[in-house]
What we know:
CATH superfamily of chain B: P-loop containing nucleotide triphosphate hydrolases
Radius of gyration of chain A: 31 Å
Order of helices and strands of chain A: HHEHHEEHEEHEEHEHEHEHHHHEHEHH
Oligomer: heterodimer
Largest sheet of chain A: 6 strands, mixed, barrel
CATH architecture of chain B: 3-Layer(aba) Sandwich
Number of strands of chain B: 10
Amino acid sequence: MNVWPIIKLSWKNIWRNKVRSGVVIISVLLGTCAGVFMTAFMYGLSMGYVKIQLQNFTSHLQIHTKAFEQEEVPEAYIPDADSLMQELKQKDFVTALSARTVITGLAASSSSSFGVTITGIDPEIEKNVSLIHTHVIDGDYLEGDRRNLVLIGQKLAERLGLKIRSKMVLNFQDVNGNISAGAFRVSGIFKSPNSQFDEANVFIKAEDLNRLIGKPGAVHEIAILVDNFKMADQYKETLSDSPDLIVESWGDLSPSLRYTDATVGTTLYIVMVIILIALTFGIINTMLMAVLERQQELGMLMSVGVNKVRIFTMILFETFFLAIFGAPVGIFLAWVGISVLSETGVDVSAFSQGFEMYGLGTVIYPELQPDYYLNIGFLIILTTLIASLYPSFKALKLNPVEAIRKI
Amino acid sequence: MAIIEVKNITKTYNEKQVPVHALNGIDLDIGAGEFTAIVGPSGCGKTTLLNIIGGLDKPTEGSITINGSNLDDLTEKQIIDFRLHHIGFVFQAYNLIPVLTALENVIFILQMQGRPHNECIATGKELLESVGLGDKINKRPSELSGGQQQRVAVARALASKPDYVLADEPTANLDSKSTSDLLDMMHQLNESVGTTFVFSTHDQRVVERAKRVVTLVDGKIESDTKQ
């Protein structure tokens, strides 16, 4: 079948009513652009949330002893942690790691007390793995050589009535099961994107904590960053073969984050499909008008022997042309916008309170995987095909004898 | 030899409710090269008969044979294909495609038949020359007068060298001058090329120029005269 004359006629047909076709093309352009940009923004928002959670709290991988996994007791430290750390540093994909001493205890001030997780860190090394040092809003990070400094969250400071340089006491068990306590001075107050974290965590120097629990050099947790956090599940298999240790990826440590990462793509397609459905109805409306106002002409074409396949093809191409002009331009404009804003970010600090409540950052970096653009293209073609069906069938149902007499 | 053989055709619309008998037992043979006008008052069945002869409608009873092919034996797809290759149509309202030029309108049928592009162009130009529109080939219908548009429609109908051309009230929308010119042109094509024309018309000027006049009244042939 020679379809070229039909395609040529379709092309000319869409310019019969330039304003109407122009409106549809611009609608498709704006709809596609807004849809793609919106999905990129949402993807950036979700990925930003995941990255914030990883950089502030979870890291990409963690190693603990199996005993620690069952119960976070001080004696469940990693044996020969130094050797293990050296081995980990040799791995190509490991970009940073930090040894932590982690115990649960009670933080008490003169007025109140609260259960907390006490994390002993090497302040300088920890900077490579987490962003806690960037969230200090008052006082200092655990700087200098002074002993028994503590970094606490703003929420805990409020609960316990603590300020910078206030004294507080941390109570916990040592490795022998005896109750131990230490008096600490608040060196800094932090405010992370997660207020619940701020209330339940304090940071002190690992050497202070290890001295108090009676085990210098004890390490309960090794936090690791790798070159690609999405590869964490593959990398974890290669990190340790010790039967006493357990290596967990961020997805293992935080299933909700894994779920967020896994479902964000699907969510984005749902958003795009909703936008395309709205556009589909616009296209159907336009094409239906175009068919109904040319009944006489369609009747003539059928009368002189233009078969139904050709009539269908003509309507299909008219619909396709309407969609195909706006969509690529819309996708291109969205790509330009996303490329620029993925570098500069979108400042949403005006809504920071609400965003922080959900553990989100105040700058969103829109981003979109390259294959998404391709899939959007296929979705638009599919949408066009669907949008053309009803007007095409409407045209095919015309009786040429009756249609030829329509005015 | 007849190229159109109509045998005892009846056509009833709205059979199940209030039947309207548009045609009541029509027998008609039309030979090659005839210039036939089907006349009669409004509602006598002229257009219905033309639609049936053109394969656009089916009779309730009776048969129609075109060049030995019984249309009843053809599938819908075959009938569409038959129309494309064997019948030319001229409509009262010209029915040209407004977004195509005169030449493109004429060659559209040829393109649908899958003819080579160069052949289409050559045939189209030749036909437009023959209907006196050689200088208007790139004009769109909106740039042509009614008479000129109907000439383009005739050229389109002739493009595929059909067995016959059916024209439903071809002069109804034309003024006297255009009617006269169109009839001259069609008459000349009939004389020189032997194209078979079948018209339905009210127009006495067309009737006067026809070689054969078939008069229908109430769905029946009242008279069939050659002049």
